[in-house]
């Protein structure tokens, strides 16, 4: 390739945005030409993030579709829910490609978005246009698309852990329970009572039980895989760690299957997809084993007494759960190898 494509990051001062910057900085075919701030345009990126001193020198741009069009080919939106609803259509109208990391275009039903996000939904024509970028499941639809809605972090860990079993009809859809845990960076950089140090440290908190905004998104993917409506019990917990999501998933097995059968099924489903690693028998993944990487690692335990399979799926929420998967989607959109710029080893310990 002779020329790099130019990328802009809106919401660069947040955790998803700064992670996009970190990963794109070493992408062989991408140059970051604009990082924006809606609240402090003109200031330096390194003022808010001193680790970027001498790495990024230009002032932050304002969020202006015409300016972005003049500087970029593709725009990543790492903004809170409700921002992309209006901004993404404006950017698409200028001819830019858009990858939205928020929940604004994931649910195809405006009523469902309003119900779970308590915000005004996007225009239906754009909801239709947005391709849901769960790369290992809908990668073929991502290829050549110009507008991607990147999946939620919990959604990525949970659905990658369930889709092969549901598609194969190996688990009973009405028995699924997901017990998920996230590191605090999942809540973004903004401070709130619930995520400051003394509230989180040495603490484990359940939150948004049966009310989490990722529930309809997970059910959308699982229903698609099962070929019938699926509803789940989904419980989220805040853990005293910076990065990482673990989804521990329980379901009744349909028929007679062992953990080894599940391992074979998942290895065959994800064959050729380098970012899903299926562990061997008796080996369960932990969040640190994917830290800083784009991997989703999956392991199994089968309980013969109850007939239940336990599936453990882990990701780094900021990489596979956000920026990494967004770049994986850019690679697929552009017809490149999906792993470009993402081929790094997890940070350990
Ligand atoms: N954190 C995570 O692990 C994940 C996050 N996501 C989603 O990605 C998105 C970003 O999340 P995250 O980075 O954690 O959030 P942060 O709160 O850390 O950052 C969001 C950034 O958006 C910018 N912003 C706020 N309002 C506007 C606006 N009206 N127009 C333009 N920019 C605005 C702010 O920067 P400024 O004021 O400088 O403009 C802010 O820094 C969210 O939708 C989130 O749900 C998805 C998966 C995982
Ligand atoms: C730890 C924590 O608070 N995590 C956030 C994840 C938010 C997120 O990623 O939001 P959308 O994908 O819906 O945009 C939460 O549970 O709401």
Automatic annotation (TrEMBL):
<keyword id="KW-0560">Oxidoreductase</keyword>
<protein>
    <recommendedName>
        <fullName>N-acetyl-gamma-glutamyl-phosphate reductase</fullName>
        <ecNumber>1.2.1.38</ecNumber>
    </recommendedName>
</protein>
<keyword id="KW-0521">NADP</keyword>
<keyword id="KW-0963">Cytoplasm</keyword>
<dbReference type="InterPro" id="IPR050085">
    <property type="entry name" value="AGPR"/>
</dbReference>
<dbReference type="InterPro" id="IPR036291">
    <property type="entry name" value="NAD(P)-bd_dom_sf"/>
</dbReference>
<comment type="pathway">
    <text>Amino-acid biosynthesis; L-arginine biosynthesis; N(2)-acetyl-L-ornithine from L-glutamate: step 3/4.</text>
</comment>
<dbReference type="GO" id="GO:0005737">
    <property type="term" value="C:cytoplasm"/>
</dbReference>
<dbReference type="GO" id="GO:0051287">
    <property type="term" value="F:NAD binding"/>
</dbReference>
<feature type="domain" description="Semialdehyde dehydrogenase NAD-binding">
    <location>
        <begin position="6"/>
        <end position="145"/>
    </location>
</feature>
<dbReference type="Pfam" id="PF22698">
    <property type="entry name" value="Semialdhyde_dhC_1"/>
</dbReference>
<dbReference type="Pfam" id="PF01118">
    <property type="entry name" value="Semialdhyde_dh"/>
</dbReference>
<keyword id="KW-0028">Amino-acid biosynthesis</keyword>
<dbReference type="InterPro" id="IPR023013">
    <property type="entry name" value="AGPR_AS"/>
</dbReference>
<dbReference type="InterPro" id="IPR000706">
    <property type="entry name" value="AGPR_type-1"/>
</dbReference>
<dbReference type="InterPro" id="IPR058924">
    <property type="entry name" value="AGPR_dimerisation_dom"/>
</dbReference>
<comment type="function">
    <text>Catalyzes the NADPH-dependent reduction of N-acetyl-5-glutamyl phosphate to yield N-acetyl-L-glutamate 5-semialdehyde.</text>
</comment>
<dbReference type="GO" id="GO:0003942">
    <property type="term" value="F:N-acetyl-gamma-glutamyl-phosphate reductase activity"/>
</dbReference>
<keyword id="KW-0055">Arginine biosynthesis</keyword>
<comment type="similarity">
    <text>Belongs to the NAGSA dehydrogenase family. Type 1 subfamily.</text>
</comment>
<dbReference type="GO" id="GO:0006526">
    <property type="term" value="P:L-arginine biosynthetic process"/>
</dbReference>
<feature type="active site">
    <location>
        <position position="153"/>
    </location>
</feature>
<dbReference type="GO" id="GO:0070401">
    <property type="term" value="F:NADP+ binding"/>
</dbReference>
<dbReference type="InterPro" id="IPR000534">
    <property type="entry name" value="Semialdehyde_DH_NAD-bd"/>
</dbReference>
């Amino acid at each position: 390739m002779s020329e790099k494509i130019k990328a802009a990051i809106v919401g660069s001062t947040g955790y998803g945005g700064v992670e996009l910057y970190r990963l794109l900085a070493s992408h062989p075919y991408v140059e970051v030409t604009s990082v924006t701030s809606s609240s402090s345009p003109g200031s330096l990126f390194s003022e808010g993030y001193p680790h970027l001193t001498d790495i990024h020198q230009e002032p932050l741009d304002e969020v202006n579709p015409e300016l972005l069009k003049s500087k970029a080919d593709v725009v990543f939106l790492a903004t809170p829910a409700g921002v992309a609803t209006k901004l993404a259509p404006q950017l698409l109208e200028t001819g830019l490609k858009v990858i939205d990391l928020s929940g604004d275009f994931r649910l195809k039903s405006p009523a469902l978005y309003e119900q779970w996000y308590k915000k005004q939904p996007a225009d239906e024509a754009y909801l239709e246009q947005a391709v849901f970028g769960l790369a290992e499941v809908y990668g073929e639809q991502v290829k050549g698309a110009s507008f991607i809605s990147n999946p939620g972090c919990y959604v990525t860990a949970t659905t990658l852990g369930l889709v092969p079993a549901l598609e194969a009809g190996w688990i009973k859809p009405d028995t699924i329970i997901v017990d998920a845990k996230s590191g605090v960076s999942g809540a973004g950089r903004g401070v709130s009572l619930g995520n400051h140090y003394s509230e989180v440290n040495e603490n484990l908190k359940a939150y948004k039980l049966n009310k989490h905004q990722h529930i309809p998104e997970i059910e959308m993917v699982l229903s698609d895989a099962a070929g019938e409506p699926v509803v789940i019990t989904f419980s989220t917990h805040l853990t005293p760690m910076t990065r990482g999501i673990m989804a521990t998933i329980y379901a009744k097995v349909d028929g007679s299957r062992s953990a080894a059968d599940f391992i074979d099924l998942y290895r065959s489903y994800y064959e050729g997809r380098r970012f899903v690693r299926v562990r061997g028998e008796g080996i369960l993944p932990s969040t640190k084993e994917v830290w800083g990487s784009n991997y989703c690692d999956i392991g199994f335990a089968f309980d013969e007494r109850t007939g239940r399979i336990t599936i453990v799926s882990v990701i780094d929420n900021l990489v596979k759960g956000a920026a990494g998967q967004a770049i994986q989607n850019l690679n697929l959109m552009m017809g490149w190898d999906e792993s470009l710029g993402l081929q790094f080893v997890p940070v350990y310990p």
